[in-house]
Design brief:
- It is a single chain.
- By secondary structure, this protein is α/β, with parallel strands linked by helices.
- 41% of the residues lie in helices and 16% in strands.
- The strands form 4 sheets. It has a 6-stranded mixed beta sheet, sandwiched between helices. A 5-stranded mixed beta sheet has the order 9-16-15-12-13, with no helix packed on it. It has a 3-stranded antiparallel beta sheet with strand order 10-11-14.
């Protein structure tokens, strides 16, 4: 079995980040000798990324921690075409104004995850419209088109699977692979970029760029893809019956995001801690995982860590209420008013309380008129559970 020497490839292997890699032994040697420049591209076809992109954002952090330079390429140019990879039909073509708005929002998503410490190389953000918007089509075909094999393109999964399903594939989309390969050429020329990484569905696009650089620039570059993360039940990570788990707080509250991670399957907790947090591998391996309480504690660690990375705060800081003077100057709190922060309406709160679905500090509350005093709060905090899957910490300020 291949045993990497570089800290970068060692950590990527340990955490489960590598699905495919071109010539991993040579890349490992390169990363051992010097700091590399790597890039990942994000098309701007939605107003936010979701957790399906989270593994790539965590890979960015690992590259940064190991001293390497990361380029994030925002595909405001390629978004005008649309990537056919994994799609049954053509994407809806977006207007430039919408693409620009999406690119700004996605940049904000990504910036939240980058390391900004002194001494760590900052992320470079570039836009591929810089070189795509004014391409001379005839010159492009003569220089690059002659170096791209249609036979290879037809064999790529992103194309062949679409054709096997007899789904229409426009000539516009067929060009996407060549255009993304051209992005890699441009970054190799402009930034001496040597590695492209992305999701497993990008393998064909990445290898097309590697081949084009080999033919045009006579250089050896590399590609890495991350695995498609699925849950223990086989479901695609981040897809729920309520829709995508967005990284933007505008589309999904920090509480909703925390709850998603708090409620993952018991079997997935350790794997997700390795992939989606900065916790050390040895610390994750040392977590006790034998009892229900230990598993629940690990789930809370997972939820706290990933929410802190995405939203810059732990969920405990998301539920803050101000002290109210109620009975003769005594600080007290009505249970229903607390639940306004957690549950949609007072009537729903009352229904849950009557049904014994609300716990405060682990104790079932059945009296909807019950008043809590300051002495009931430990360190100005109280733990609230609404049903089996919704858990909160309310902090008094």
């Amino acid at each position: 079995m291949f045993k990497p020497k570089s800290n970068l490839i060692q950590e990527l292997q340990l955490r489960g980040y590598i699905h495919q890699c071109t010539n991993i032994e040579e890349l490992d040697k390169l990363a051992s000798k010097k700091k590399i420049t790597a890039y990942i591209g994000f098309d701007c076809t939605a107003e936010s990324l979701h957790v399906g992109s989270l593994i790539q954002l965590m890979l960015i952090r690992i590259l940064q921690k190991n001293g390497h330079q990361v380029i994030v390429l925002l595909g405001d140019g390629t978004s005008k075409i649309g990537d056919p990879s994994g799609k049954d039909k053509s994407r809806q073509l977006l207007e430039e104004k919408e693409i620009k708005n999406n690119s700004q929002n996605i940049k904000k998503n990504i910036e939240k995850f980058t390391i900004k410490d002194t001494g760590v190389k900052k992320i470079k953000f570039l836009y591929n419209s810089l070189w795509l918007d004014n391409i001379n089509y005839i010159n492009f075909l003569r220089t690059y088109g002659k170096n791209v094999s249609v036979n290879k393109m037809l064999a790529m999964d992103s194309i062949s699977e679409r054709l096997k399903r007899e789904q229409p594939l426009s000539f516009l989309e067929f060009n996407y692979m060549v255009i993304q390969a051209y992005d890699f050429v441009q970054l190799n020329n402009r930034e001496n970029c040597e590695v492209q990484f992305g999701g497993s569905d990008q393998w064909g696009n990445i290898t097309a760029g590697i081949d084009l650089i080999r033919r045009i620039n006579k250089k050896e570059v590399f590609g890495i893809t991350t695995p498609l993360i699925t849950t223990s039940s086989g479901d695609k990570m981040g897809k729920t019956n309520k829709g995508a788990i967005w990284l933007s707080e505008k589309l999904l509250s920090s509480n909703g995001y925390w709850q998603f991670w708090r409620n993952v399957d018991d079997k997935d907790v350790r794997k997700f801690l390795k992939i989606f947090t900065d916790l050390k591998i040895e610390d994750i391996n040392n977590l006790k995982n034998n009892s229900t309480s230990e598993i629940n504690n690990n789930k809370k660690i997972l939820a706290d860590e990933v929410t802190n990375l995405c939203h810059g705060k732990n969920i405990a800081d998301s539920f803050i209420i101000k002290k109210n003077k109620l009975i003769k100057g005594i600080e007290a709190f009505k249970i229903v008013s607390l639940n306004k922060k957690i549950i949609q309406s007072n009537s729903e709160a009352r229904r849950l309380i009557r049904g014994g679905a609300i716990k405060f500090n682990g104790k079932i509350i059945t009296d909807e008129t019950k008043i809590f005093f300051k002495k009931d709060f430990k360190e100005n905090k109280i733990k609230v559970s609404a049903g089996k899957k919704n858990h909160f910490v309310i902090k008094i300020i």
